[in-house]
Amino acid sequence: MKLHITSLQLFLMLFIAMTGTVFVSFQSLMVNAVGRDAWWLFLAQGLLILPHLWLFNRFYQDFKWSGPIAFLYGVYWFLVMASFLGYIGYTLNVWAYPKTPAIVIMALVVIVLFYMMSSRDETTVNIGVILIPMILLFMLFVYMGINHAVWTNLFPVGEASLQELQRGSIKAQLPFIGIELFLLLRTFVPGKLSTWKLAVYSGIWLLFFLQMLIIPMVYFALEEFKLISEPIMYMLKSQDVAFMERLDLLFVYIWLAWSFVAMGIYAFSVMRLLPEKIKKRRTRNAAVFCILLLAVGSRLATKETVRLSGSLLLYAHLFFAVALPFLVIMVNRVFGKKRGGKPA
User: Fold this and answer.
1) Pairwise CA distance, residues 22 & 126, whole Å
2) CB contact at 8 A, 83 and 178
3) Is the C-alpha dihedral spanning 221, 223, 225, 228 positive or negative?
4) Distance from C-alpha of 161 to C-alpha of 172, rounded to nearest angstrom
5) Cα(179)–Cα(223) distance, rounded to whole angstroms?
6) In whole angstroms, what separates CA 328 from the centre of its chain?
7) Does any domain span residue 155?
8) Residue 344 falls inside a structural domain
């Protein structure tokens, strides 16, 4: 039986996959690259998400999930997950469990992922709902930092050189990672998807990441970003609240649940690309996938490998989210016309 999801489920899955990990660290990368110009540069690039999604929605039927294409995206999403897993293990080892080996932390993450993968598809599709109150609670904690905001930290702008702007433009692609999932998830949504719904999602996504960038920028001085790799966590740690000694630890658990669901969505996508005969062996596939993921992710849980994998991921994203979809769609439309077909 073919899986069907609603447009709301699609956008929730896409939002969680695109925000699950990178929103805690992309700020330092951008600010260190372009300084105060980071916020307007990201705003300018963030506005491109709507035409990006519109093009995907308009031509997704021309993106054929043939064997080689499915294999390439399956490998890419697996490596994205391995990079995320390494980052989760490294970050939790630094912030929450310094005496626990990173491999143990990652093994616990993989066990939860195995449960999600071996369950029905509807589990992954619907589990993101539980994150909505957590996300709202997290946003409330972040807004508490506005009391210490120095809004002049955002100005003056226009001081970055062309080379710095180019480097910052690459760093600004981090929050876009995962947008190509739309091409697969859209195939499960029956009927048409209005531009208005795409615009609403794009606005929510842009507002979320813009806040995640601007609030740390007005909270920390420009020079401090060179010393902090996760500004959101440092900001929460420095806040004094009556009900908890370390607010950042509460956020760590929210972020961990967020990352669980995000990785589950990537795993769901990879499993959907498997051939039908292999796809039926759900438990065995989940076990093999998780063992391989732990083996690769455990190699990426150091400070150096986290930075390296993050840099490589940016360029891989540009290929799989922009270049390859454009190429596949164009080829299918050209050959479709030559064969007398009617491309969508």
Assistant:
1) 22
2) no
3) negative
4) 16
5) 32
6) 23
7) yes
8) no
Give me 259's structure tokens: 């990352």
Using DSSP, state whether 246 is helix, strand or coil. coil
Closest CA to 332 of 69, 71, 52, 51: 69
d(CA 233, CA 229): 9
The answer to whether residue 261 is domain-embedded is yes
H or E element in which residue 118 lies: helix 102-118
Contacts of 306 (CB under 8 A, 6+ apart): 86, 87, 90, 300
* Length, in residues, of the chain: 344
In a domain, 297, yes or no: yes
Is 0.90 topped by the overall pTM? yes
Token pair of 66 as six digits:
């043939």
Counted domains in the chain: 1
Domain that residue 226 falls in: 7-332
The answer to whether 198 and 50 are in contact (CB under 8 A) is: yes
CATH number at residue 180: 1.20.1740.10
Taking only the tens of pLDDT, the chain with its 344 residues reads 578 999 999 999 999 999 987 888 899 999 999 999 999 999 999 999 999 999 999 999 999 999 999 999 999 999 999 999 999 999 888 888 888 888 998 999 999 999 999 988 898 999 999 999 999 988 988 888 888 899 999 999 999 999 999 999 999 999 999 999 999 999 999 999 999 999 999 999 999 999 999 999 999 999 999 999 889 888 888 877 766 677 777 888 888 889 999 999 999 999 999 887 777 788 999 999 999 999 999 999 988 999 889 899 999 999 999 999 999 999 998 887 666 555 43
CA torsion, ordered 120, 276, 53, 164, to nearest 10 deg: 100
Q: Are 307 and 174 in contact (CB under 8 A)?
A: no
Residue that is written with structure tokens 């080829």 in the block: 331
- Please state, in angstroms and rounded to a whole number, the distance separating the CA atoms of residues 283 and 289: 10
* CA separation for the pair 45, 171 (Å, rounded): 11
